[in-house]
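re the bet — no i am not wrong, look at it urself. input seq straight from the record:
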Amino acid sequence: MNTQLQNSVSVGQSRLLLVHKLYQQYAGMLLGYIGDVVKNQAIAEQYLVAVFKDVPNELDELTNEDVNTFCHLQSMARKKLSEYFVSTAYQNNGKSENKPSICDNKYTQQMTHEQQLVFCGVHWYGKTITSLATELNQPEENIRKILKDCFTIIRSSN
C-alpha cells in the first residue's frame, strides 16, 4: 500500500514537472499571442494563467507526438479568449456595448460584416461550417465560399 502511495506521488510530481516544462517553453510566446489580442498586459497575464490552469487536464493531448503543442495551447487560449469577447464591454460615447472581436484586427476590418461573422466564428469560436450555416441560415457552400474569400483578403493584405 505504501508503494502505491509513493507511485501516485511520483506520477503527480512528474505531471507537475511536465506542466512546468511546458510553461517554460511556451508561456512567453503564448503571452505575446494573447497580449496581441486583448491589448492589455494585465488581462493577457490573467488569460495565460487560466490557460495553464487547464494544462494538467490536457497533458495527454499536449504530449501526444502527433500534436503540435503550441498550436494546441493556442487553441486553448482561443477558447478562453472567446469568453473575453463575449463578456467584455467598453465605453463608446458614454454607451456600453459588447466589444466586437474584430475591432483591432487590420485584416478583419477589410471584411464585410458577414465575412467577419464567418471568419471569427470559425477562427475564434471554433464553430463548424455546418453550425455557422445553420446560424446564418445559409447553405454550407456559401459559408465555405465566404471563408475562402476571407483568406483571400488576408493573403492579399500582406
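see?? The chain is about 75% helix and 5% strand. told u. also Residues 101-157 form a domain with the Arc Repressor Mutant, subunit A fold (CATH 1.10.10.10). so pay up
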